[in-house]
Specification:
Shape: globular
Mean pLDDT: 97
CATH topology of one domain: Amidase signature (AS) enzymes
CATH architecture of one domain: Alpha-Beta Complex
Structural class: alpha+beta
Distance between the termini: 14 Å
Number of strands: 17
Largest sheet: 11 strands, mixed
Radius of gyration: 21 Å
Low-confidence stretches: none
Strand content: 15-25%
Number of helices: 14
Length: 483
């Protein structure tokens, strides 16, 4: 396999053995971007001059005997992270010229680990879509099929990895924004436990980079192998030095098991709110079969599983309560009027979205209390199981859909149309309680599109789903180069 598609772990070994140089790897990556990214449009803000300088510095450091986890390895960064000297726009045209003066904490950690940052990857407007397109940088296409989306909001990062533009990337996730692009593009991603990875500096343009703990969102790693996810998570994980880092040190527990045969897994493919497409069901069952063949304990149902319908409703309400927090007063009042007209018996996700948009503080506290009940339910569940295997979204990558009315969009699942945002329920299964979830490739659909699944693990036991991902990669294969 050519260097552009090798793992970060493999490149690090080659660098240590003096088989390659960082300058050579960086020039190869830049050449590949310049040749192929016109069709993919993943790298929206190149930073090649500084990347070349960083590569020279990495080679000089290695010649002095230095070694760091990512020393000399080319990587990319989601556009939404502050990188000193580069624009941070979140795809919003009014901030086209906004350039932060300081790196986000995770960009600083990449640099400290020796990474060579090639540039920034494309995102949707305001990070508010399952696709990646905006008026500043245009549309990112899926390397497997350019007529389809690469996902969002970390779609540029997933497309960059699938196309061989750097070995690693960092993204963020609140509605599957790491996991969905990984699923669509056939790569790996890990949504860490809520609060495990500091996110200071991953903020909208002009917003001060304060160490504010989010309610749902996380930042995390993306890669082409499961082991590379662990390599990058070890660089990213840890409290913010301005807050918990003053007193706390990170000590993640080891994975619960070293062999597939020892894992206890619940497999899910059906959700009460939305159908699961046949291609995704096949991917879930491919993983389930590999687990069973390896001797793992596999179940299809358990009374310990928290209620999926209530979990989806809570997630939807909490997610959308934050999405309109800064709406103009007149727009907010219109939403209140629409919510008041809802029937008390309407328990659809559309109603949950609208009710969440107009939550009072009292409403939010009540929902958050129910979230804590779900977290406790998951603790009981993970006393008997080690992981959940389930979909990330109901379909492989779908054709580009740029309808500006997101609530009017539909997602086609085996010929049946569903509200576009209903597909978030699978992402929300881990997001709402703050659980770690690893996205892994699970083969190709009959149309030749990547299909992924997620492995949800116990809170702060991130190494357990990551280890399971590594073992599954060995059992069923992993990343494949788009043809």
């Amino acid at each position: 396999m050519e260097r552009s598609f090798q793992s970060a772990e493999g490149l690090a070994a080659a660098l240590r053995a003096r088989e390659v140089t960082s300058v050579g790897l960086t020039e190869e990556a830049i050449a590949r971007v310049e040749r192929d990214d016109k069709a993919v449009n993943a790298i929206c803000v190149p930073d090649f001059d500084r990347a070349r300088a960083a590569a020279r510095g990495a080679d000089e450091a290695r010649a002095r005997g230095e070694d760091r986890p990512l020393l000399g390895i080319p990587v990319t960064v989601k556009e939404s992270y502050n990188v000193a000297g580069l624009p941070t726009t979140w795809g919003m045209p009014q901030y086209r010229d906004y350039v932060p003066a300081e790196d986000a904490v995770q960009v600083s950690r990449l640099r400290a680990a020796g990474a060579v940052i090639l540039g920034k990857t494309n995102v949707p407007l305001g990070l508010q879509d399952l696709q990646s397109f905006n008026a500043i940088y245009g549309t990112t296409n899926n390397p497997w099929d350019q007529a389809r989306t690469s996902g969002g909001s970390s779609g540029g990062s997933a497309a960059a990895l699938a196309a061989g533009f750097g070995s690693l990337s960092i993204g963020s996730d609140i509605g599957g924004s790491l996991r969905t692009p990984a699923h669509f593009c056939g790569v790996y991603a890990h949504k860490p436990t809520l609060g495990l990875v500091a996110d200071r500096g991953m903020v909208p343009p002009t917003v001060p980079a304060y160490p504010v703990g989010p309610e749902l969102a996380v930042v995390g790693p993306m890669a082409r192998t499961a082991r590379d996810l662990t390599l990058l998570l070890d660089v990213m994980a840890g409290p913010d030095p301005l807050t918990y880092g003053v007193a706390h040190q990170l000590a993640l527990p080891p994975a619960r098991h070293a062999r597939l045969s020892d894992f206890r897994v619940l497999v899910l493919e059906e959700h009460p709110f939305i159908a699961t497409g046949s291609a995704v069901c096949a991917g879930v069952n491919r993983v389930a079969d590999a687990l069973a063949e390896a001797g793992a304990h596999v179940e299809r149902r358990s009374p310990l599983l928290p209620d999926l319908a209530e979990a989806a409703t809570l997630y939807t309400q909490l997610l959308f309560s934050g999405s309109v927090a800064r709406f103009p007063v007149d727009a907010y009042e219109e939403l209140r009027t629409r919510a008041a007209a809802l029937s008390a018996d309407d328990r659809s996700l559309a109603a949950a979205r609208l009710r969440g948009m107009v939550f009072s503080h009292r409403d939010w506290i009540e929902a958050n209390d129910r979230r804590e009940l779900h977290r406790h339910g998951w603790r009981r569940f993970f006393a008997e199981f080690d992981a959940v295997v389930c979909p990330i979204t109901p379909t492989p990558a779908f054709p580009h859909d740029h309808d500006p009315d997101l609530l009017a969009r539909r997602i086609d699942i085996d010929g049946v149309a569903y509200p576009f945002f209903d597909q978030l329920v699978w992402a929300g299964l881990a997001t709402m309680p703050g659980l770690p979830a690893t996205a892994v490739p699970a083969g190709l659909s009959p149309d030749g599109l990547p299909v992924g699944v997620q492995l949800i693990g116990p809170m702060f036991e991130d190494r357990t789903p990551l280890r399971l991902a590594e073992l599954l990669e060995q059992a069923i294969g992993g990343f494949q180069v788009p043809q």
